[in-house]
Every structure is written in C-alpha cells, then in structure tokens.
C-alpha cells in the first residue's frame, strides 16, 4: 500500500509508432427505479399526455430517490460494463465522467467513482459539455489511448436532471429524466476496429439558451436564488430545437468525411434522445432511413450525458449491433456543444 498522495513509480509507456485503436469492450447502464409517467405529470403541471407524446415522443422517465446521487447509479453502470469487459477496477488507468449534475461541484464524480470502484491506479476527472458530455469524454479517452498513455479507460455519462428541474415549469419539467451509462475502452493494435473518428464542436454564443443561473461563482446560493428557482435549468426550447437539427446533421457530415464512409455504411445511428421531432427532422434532412435509427426516448426522456451511452448499451444488448457493424453516435447540448463518434464493432 502506498501512502495517500503517493504512487509507486511506473516506467513511462513507450510512445507508439502507430496510434493505438480504441475498442469498446464492455458497456452498462443503470436507471433509478421510480417511473414518472405523463399521467403523473398531468397531476403536477398544466400539461397532457397527448401534448408530451406529440411534441417530444416521451411517455415516461426515471426519477432518482431523495438522497440518491449521480455516483450511486453510475457505479452500478460501471460494474456492469467492467463485468462484461472482464476488467478489474485495479486495471483502469483513467476514469472520465461526462455530467452537469454530479454528486457535488467538487470533488469530481469521477474521483467519487474511483473510490467506490476501488480503482486505485486510475486518474479521474469530469467533463462538462451538457448533453454532449459522453461524446466529449469518449473523444478525450481516445486521445489518451491513441498516444499509448493509457491502456484501459472507463468512460461514464451520468445525469440527475430531476435534481435541477423546476417542477413548476411545464416547458422543461416534462422533458428530463435520470440515468447512467458506462463504457470500458481498451487499446488495440488493429487499425480498422473501434473508434474510427470523433468530432467535437462548440458555440458559446448560444450558451444563454440552456443554463442554470445560480450555484456557481456568478450567482452563489442565497435565500433569494433559491426562492427565485435559480438553481434549476432554464431553456429556450425553440432556439435549441433549430440548432440541434443543424448541429447533429453537421456532426454526421464531418464524421463521414473523417472516417471516409458513406451514409449507407452506417448500420445504426444513435442520436441524443432529446426530442423525437428533433431526431426525425435530422434524419429527414440527411435522408437517413428511420429503421436504422435507435430510439428509446419514450422510456427515459432526455437523460443528457447519459442518453447516448444508455442507448448504445440497449442497442448492443438487444443484438442490434454485430461484429463489423459501423455505428454512429451524435449529440448536442448546453454550451452549446455538439459532436459525435463513429465506431466499428
Ligand atoms: N404541456 C402543454 N403545453 C405546453 C407545455 C407542456 N408541457 N410546454 C409548453 N407548452 C405550450 C407553450 O406554452 C406554448 O403555448 P402557447 O402557444 O399558448 O404559447 C405551446 O405549448 C407551444 O410551445 P413551444 O415551446 O413552441 O413548443 P414546441 O413545439 O417548440 O416544443 C419543446 C417545446 C418540446 C421544449 C421543444 O422546443 C424542444 O424539444 N426543444 C429542444 C429542447 C432540448 O432538446 N433540450 C435539451 C437540450 S440538451 C441539454 O443539454 C440538457
């Protein structure tokens, strides 16, 4: 055992002659037990099942229990992913968590997970990129693996949006749900497998459309900020809707060019599950066949950073992704941010 704050010296890994490929060797997901249906929401705010289904495609979402925090469900998603990958926590070099609703502002949820998993060797940090958090985290992880710095990376997307939702605001409270997903990434010598391309983008000028005003250094918590519901998510839904369609289509085009692929090569498209109409508008714009688009928004609503990894895990476990299949994941979110990845399984 080393003393806290120390590590045994390790030889530096040799800089690889060729970048290593990054393969996904295990995934896992976990959602809270409690289901909140559209009928439940009808009793809370002036809304209807018909409005929510027609405008969003959502039927129910999962809501965490009081006292349940992001790391509590994330750790279960990680354990499932590690079990499938047959990787021990002690073998993890790095943990990256995409989240905007971690357990606390600090320490990072990645450090909390490192302790819960017993991944003593792992470095750990969080990434804040709104709903694009998992894509950003995956892309960063790939850089560490490609350069030979890390062999095994645990990437997590977890969100507890219910904790920052204004439950009196019908324009946002019907949209969000809680959930977690995790992926274990490993270095591989085969250049034609694993992550083929990543694309990250941001436009801070759109930050005003989706944000939480208080709780940071701009507006620290006071009695007034609590009374004025300033610790909850504020959103200009129409503005986000328009940007989201353009941004996801933009990500698809960049990824195809980088990976030297055509739309026909994509076996499954996994878009961020924010709104069924956004997904349909994007695939119409791209002329992508709807039967090759993965959708689970009716079950979970928008789980932000967790959305695409929960969807990837479900698609894999449902047998929709076979060895050799090329899968594209695209997302957009607060920041504004957007991006995607292409993976050959
Ligand atoms: N129930 C009933 N009526 C509602 C509700 C509700 N829950 N919410 C809004 N309305 C009303 C509005 O008040 C408005 O009424 P009015 O015409 O009398 O003024 C009417 O419905 C239409 O409102 P719009 O906002 O124009 O509805 P729209 O069709 O744009 O749908 C929505 C709203 C679902 C929010 C849509 O704009 C959207 O999905 N935007 C993108 C949101 C998104 O993706 N956010 C996630 C970003 S990711 C992240 O980082 C967290």
The unique ligands bound to this protein are: acetyl coenzyme *A
What's the SSE pattern? Answer: EEHHEHEHEHEHEEEHEHEHHHEE
Number of DSSP E strands: 13
Structural class: alpha/beta
Major beta sheet, strand line-up: 1-7-6-4-5
CATH 4th-level superfamily of the largest domain: Thiolase/Chalcone synthase
| Beginning-to-end CA distance, first to last residue | 38 Å
- What is the helix content? 25-40%
The stretches of 5 or more residues where confidence is low (pLDDT under 50) are none
Count of helical regions: 11
What is the top-level CATH class of the largest domain? Answer: Alpha Beta
CATH architecture of the largest domain: 3-Layer(aba) Sandwich
CATH topology of the largest domain: Peroxisomal Thiolase, Chain A, domain 1
Overall structural domain count: 2
Biggest beta sheet summary: 5 strands, mixed
> How does the overall form come out from the CA principal axes?
globular
The fraction of residues assigned to DSSP E strands is 15-25%
Q: What integer is the average pLDDT?
A: 96
The radius of gyration computed from the alpha-carbon positions, rounded to a whole number of angstroms, is 20 Å
Short description:
By secondary structure, the chain is α/β, with parallel strands linked by helices.
């Amino acid at each position: 055992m080393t003393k806290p704050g120390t590590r045994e010296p390790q030889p530096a890994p040799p800089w690889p002659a060729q970048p290593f490929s990054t393969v996904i060797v295990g995934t896992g997901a976990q959602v809270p037990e409690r289901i909140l249906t559209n009928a439940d929401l009808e009793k809370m705010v002036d809304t209807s099942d018909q409005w929510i289904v027609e405008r969003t495609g959502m039927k129910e979402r999962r809501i965490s229990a009081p006292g349940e925090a992001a790391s509590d469900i994330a750790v279960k998603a990680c354990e499932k992913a590690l079990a499938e990958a047959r990787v021990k926590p002690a073998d993890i070099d790095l943990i990256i968590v995409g989240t905007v609703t971690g357990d606390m502002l600090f320490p990072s949820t990645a450090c909390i997970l490192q302790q819960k998993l017993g991944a003593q060797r792992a470095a750990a940090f969080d990434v804040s990129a709104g709903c694009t958090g998992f894509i950003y985290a995956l892309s960063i992880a790939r850089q560490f693996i490609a350069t030979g710095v890390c062999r095994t990376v645990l990437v997590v997307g977890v969100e507890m949006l219910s904790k920052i939702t204004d439950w009196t605001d019908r324009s946002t409270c019907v949209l969000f749900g809680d959930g977690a997903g995790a992926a274990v990434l490993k270095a591989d010598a085969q250049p034609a497998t694993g992550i083929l391309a990543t694309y990250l983008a941001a436009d801070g000028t759109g930050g005003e459309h989706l944000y939480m005003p208080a709780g940071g250094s701009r507006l620290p918590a006071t009695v007034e900020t609590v009374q004025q519901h300033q610790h909850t998510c504020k959103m200009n839904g129409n503005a986000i809707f328009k940007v989201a369609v353009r941004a996801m289509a933009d990500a698809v085009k960049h990824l195809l060019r980088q990976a030297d692929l055509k739309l026909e090569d994509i076996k499954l498209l996994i878009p961020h599950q924010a709104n069924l109409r956004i997904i349909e508008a994007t695939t119409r714009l791209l002329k992508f066949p709807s039967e090759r688009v993965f959708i689970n928004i009716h079950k979970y609503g928008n789980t932000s950073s967790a959305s695409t990894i929960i969807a990837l895990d479900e698609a894999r476990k449902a047998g929709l992704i076979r060895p050799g299949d090329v899968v594209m994941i695209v997302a957009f979110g607060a920041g504004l941010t957007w991006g995607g990845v292409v993976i050959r399984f």
